[in-house]
Amino acid sequence: MAATSYDDRDGQIWFDGKMVQWRDANVHLLSHALHYGSSVFEGERMYAGNIFKLREHTERLLKSAEILGFEIPYSAEQIDAACIEACEVNNIVDGYIRPIAWRGSEMMAISAQQNTVHLAIAAWEWPSYFSPEARLKGLRLQTSKWKRPSPETEPVHAKAAGLYMICTLSKHAAEADGFDDSLMLDYRGQVAEATGANIFFEMGDGKLHTPTPDCFLDGITRRTVIDLAKRRGIEVIERVIMPDELANATQVFLTGTAAEVTPVSAIDDHTYTVGEITQQMIEDYDKEVGKPRAKASAAE
Fold it and tell me: Mind spelling out the 3-state secondary structure of 249-264?
């Protein structure tokens, strides 16, 4: 059975300070965000009735808007409360929360100084970004032809909608070629991230290596996993990683609010195992967020 379209569901969405019926949560087609990409968003997860690191997500949303030159007309406290309310009215205990802020339709041009800023928050059940089968055996990535831009080219440290178009193009190309996702390099040809998640490597030295996030998001899950690794005495090295080093890696995994901690079994022609460090990070992260751990049978 096909999944219900996201615009045709029962429930309510928090929209500019009040709850509205899900199917009525609409914006005008001449909204500035639709034409010029002036919107920012967050992805959050609720586990067992608690939104993991809610305030960090809210603060990043506010910061992203600031980077794009507009101010969300709600405080962090109000946004946190709205996220919780959106979950409560939709009876979400384990699910996904999507706050999004955007410029409206008062001006239809590059300039948007007079446009009203809107905020909406939707919440729904969403067990996993990748299928359980793919997560257990590891994802296969294909290096994308699209590259993460320079900080002098785009507002790379904002979670801005417009920055994700090359991610969609990359993921579609990878899926068409039989892969699960793409590995994206940056404008210098250095390893950056996947289309919606950060990436970590174990290079056979018992340490975790991860690209320095100077032109892409320093993810909240990324920082959580770094902290978890350090608690276990695992050294984490943030550094420049070049594509020719992919052959040296023995374990690879992705991190993100949606992806959580997901192993990678291949990048292009390179293959990897779902090894001890990867399994440990999956287990530690699941415990941290309060999620029951899936059995990693494919790696046993």
Answer: CCEEEEEECCCEEEEE
